[in-house]
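Recall that a protein's primary structure is simply its ordered list of amino acids. Everything else, from secondary elements to tertiary packing, is in principle encoded there. The following example makes that idea concrete.
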Amino acid sequence: MPQFPELFTGELVQSRRIIYQPSQFAVENLVYLQETGNLTAVKPHVSSRKGLASYLFFIVTEGEGKLSYEGVNYQLKKGDCAFIDCRVPYSQGSSKEHLWSLKWVHFDGKNMPGIYEKYRERGGAPVIGSGDKEKLENLLDKLFETASSSSYVRDMKINSVLCELLCAIMEVSWNPDSIKKGSTKSLDTRVVKNYIDSNFTKQISLESVAKEFNVNKSYLVRSFKEDFGITVNNYILQQRILMAKNELRFTGKILDLIAEECGFSDSNYFIRMFKKIEGITPGEYRKTW
């Protein structure tokens, strides 16, 4: 159960917060809430932490301040956001001239290390300085409201809001053009993905795609997986299986024809790959519908 919204007034800050106790089910299976709220600095202050089993996201709603993280000092102003792994030492504090106000959330989950790693791989920085901050602030408000409720599925709803927040953070922070400028990549994998989406029903492969874009196969595999989390061959197979499932569900076409239309070399290979991915044969899948 959460400690319901309380107003904490001290010498340095005034804050309204919820300290949340997630269920064991949430800790083991969901992205779960630890604490959320808002604060307004009464005096300049610095808060230092290290080794917390938590991820912190906050947005500056008024004023200015500073975040120190991974040996870098970031100056934050109204509208700026921060997203950090609290296992890493950090400190944050309001400026003297323009005392800040914040909205924040501490949260965690068994899958969060991988999510945060992907965030950083895609160019996500500890401080996000541009984007749709209104949407992010609204999600924090929604999270506070959800955590304050007495819903019997509160942990599931909190998980949903936190996942929506993570998606919004990814969208706000990821700038593919700037990532490429800061790296040695010469291949725009978005173009490669679009090419596959338009041609997977043909007899294309990793080799033919690499030849189409005049790049080394190993380089193509590495770049594509870095950006989309899947290899070229597996992405081609994934698109073919998705199309085949649609055909099996909504048409009466024979398996040989479906295999051919979806880009498989023969029906036996189609059946084998379908069962490997879905756990059942195409015929068994069709019967379920």
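The chain has twelve helices and eleven strands. The chain has a mean pLDDT of 88.
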